[in-house]
Amino acid sequence: MSKHNFIFCPGTWLGLGKLELTGSPTKIRFYMKWSVLPIEENVIYCEQLIELEEGDEPILNRFQITITSPNSFDVKLENMTSGIVYGKGAIDGEVISWEYKEPVFFEDTTGFTGEEVYILQPNGEYMLRSEYKADGEFKTIIEGRIWKKEDL
User: Fold this and answer.
1) Does the structure show a pLDDT above 80 at 149?
2) What pTM does this model have?
3) How many angstroms separate the CA atoms of 152 and 136, rounded?
4) Which of 32, 57, 89, 152 might form a disulfide with 98, Cβ 3.0–4.6 angstroms?
């Protein structure tokens, strides 16, 4: 974890990229802001605010990251769309990643799965790729980059 500043060091991270929905030829540009609080008793709280270029309201994701070993962690994601989803994360060299596998959150759905991968670049930024699937059909693919906001 020591080489990674993202998530494991408090501060603000900014990002941008493109979001693609299966079945749609359009890619939507997005902007992102992560607010990461200091680690307290192996738990990190983060908020992620996402604004879509063509969206009405920003999307707010709240994360609780619990460090379970030097190379692994548990993730709890909460938002208005999917409710609360749990996942497992890992650190492997230059990569921070986590995966969600929720079997069912309502009787008439097949659940939520997803994966987020952040790859540390030589300049300290991270390239990101995420893929989410809900109800077994529609997939959302996100590609972009994030960087630490400089303190003034």
Assistant:
1) yes
2) 0.88
3) 45
4) 89
